[in-house]
Amino acid sequence: MSVSYFALRRLSPFHGTIQVVEAGEGRAFSLDGIRWTVQLLSQQALRQPVWGNIGPASAERRYFNFASWSSKGGMVRRPVNPSLGDQSSHPALGALLVALDTMPPIPFPLADTLELWLLHREDAMPLALLRSMKGHTPPPGVYSADWRAFPPEDRGFFSPGLLELAAGDSRHADPQQHAAQLTALVGQEAGRPRCLQWFRRDAQGGGIGLQGQRLRPELEGRFLPRTDFPELLLSEAWPEDGRILVQDYLDWQAPRLLTLPGLAHTTRRRLERAAVRRPMLLYHCRKLIPEVLEREVMEPALVQAVLRHTA
To answer: Which of 12, 61, 100, 133 has the smallest number of CB atoms closer than 10 Å to its CB?
Structure first.
C-alpha cells in the first residue's frame, strides 16, 4: 500500500498549513503537527441527506472521523455512526497507523502547486492568493473573487502604522475599521469585474497561467517567474498608506506565514521578529515552521506561551 506525506495551505484566508498522511483508503491530518485526526473511507456507500426528504438521495463512499492520534498518546477511538458497523478491522487502518508511527520530519513538503490568484485590475499580475490545491489541472467551476484577510477567530487586528498617521488623517483613527480598510484596499486594486487566473507553479517558483474567470484569452499560457508572485501571498506594492496597512497585516499574520517554505532569509527574519508579538499563535504554529534563523529571538516568546498555557 502506497503512503504519501504532504502539506496543503489553508485558504482563504490564509491560516497556516495542514499536514496530511495518506495510506490507501485511510488518511490523517493535523493542524499543529502534534494532534492528528484519523479518517477512514467507508466500506459501503452512504446515503446523502436530502433537505426535507425531497428528491432522490444519492449514495457514495465517504470519509469519516475514526480516531485521534498522537505520538505520545497513541490512538483514541471516537464515537462512530452505528450504521457504519465495526470499523476496527478496516483494511487501511493498520497501514495508516504504521505510517503515522514512522512519518518523516514535519513539516511535509507543500503539494498544492495549483494556485488561483486574484489579479491586478491594470496589469493582470498576481495580487492575492485565493485558493490552492493538488493536481495538474484546475477543476471546472466558478470561484469567489472576494479575498478575505482573517480567519474567524482573529478579531483583534489593527494597524499601529495607521494610528500614527491618524493625527493628520482622521480616516485612520478608528482601529476597528482597519480590517475593513484592508479588505477594501485589495478589492479596489482588483477592480470590477474581478479577474482570476489559475497558475501551475514549478519547482523553481515560476508559474504557467491556465484558465480563469473573466480572463483575457491572451493571458492563458503565459509564464511568470517566481518574482512575479507575492512571496507572502499578498502583494506588498502599494502607495504609502496602503503599504503601511499591508505591512502591519503581514506582521499580524507572521506566525502563520512562517510556516511557508522557501522564504527569503530577509523575509523570514522580519517575520520572526514580528511573530514574537503573538506568542500563543506562534506556539501553536511552532512544529510547522520549516526553518528558524534567529532562535534567540523566537525562544523567549515560546517560553512565555508555555507559561501562559500552564498557568
So the answer is: 61
